[in-house]
Amino acid sequence: MSAAVLRTEDLVVGYGGRPVLEGFSFELRPNEVLCLIGHNGAGKSTLLKTLFGLIPYQGGKVFRDDAVLGAIDPRAQSASGVSLVPEGRGVFKGLTVAETFQLSMWSANIPRSDRPDRLEWVMSILPALKTFYQQRAGTLSGGQQQIVSIGRALLIKPRCMLLDEPSIGLAPKLFQDLLYPLRDLQKSTGMSILLVEQNVKEALKIADRVIVLKSGVLVKEALPAELSDNAKLMELY
Fold first, then answer.
1. Which segments in the chain show pLDDT lower than 70?
2. Cα angle, residue 26 at apex, residues 25 and 29 outer, rounded to 5°
């Protein structure tokens, strides 16, 4: 069996001496969509930020491809093919989409000669980008900004994508229009996706596996079909 793309053992992460994640162990396997659900404040976003290197961890271990990572560096994670779509999109509102993408490709050390093909590939997945590519991100709707955020994460052709609450502020139809192309891409490329999402009903439709986080502790691992009953879900929250 192939090594997990990302894995933790007894992970401890906190702020100001207060643990948010405590003894948290999980694995993201190759070629799967793993959905992480839980109540607000359970530690879901903290986990994604820790895995990408935006928050230091205080205890336990983090592995990438079975290699132990010490202090996690976001640039090193990106170079290894791990990308993050942050909660709230994180776009630079004063930059055009074109400027944002050029900056992202420069930051990711994508060779200049490869950049046109890389842009074309991203736009083949998210064709709506073409319609507002020259606009400033601050003039875009919430849905358009989310497309920019996902497109930016795709520029490195990731083998692993961390998606943090992509449905926030989006109409259900627009969320579906974003989610299903990503699922198709994941199937065709073998990419792994760790999806944190409050819109559980839609997230379960594309997930291969589900883990449930409660107050910083993993309380259940299940297949999506096992959680199709709303009553079962409510018990876990």
1. 1, 89, 230-237
2. 155
Identity at 16, one-letter amino acid code: G
How would DSSP label each residue in 99-133?
HHHHHHHHHTT--GGGHHHHHHHHHHHSGGGGGST
Report the alpha-carbon distance of residue 85 to residue 166 in Å, rounded.
Answer: 8
Domain 6-236 listed as CATH 3.40.50.280: no
Rounded alpha-carbon distances, angstroms, from residue 229 to 46, 165, 223, 237: 27, 22, 12, 13
* pLDDT score for 172: 78
Cα 178 to Cα 98: distance, rounded to the nearest angstrom: 20
pLDDT at residue 1 in the model: 60
Residue with tokens 């992460």: 13
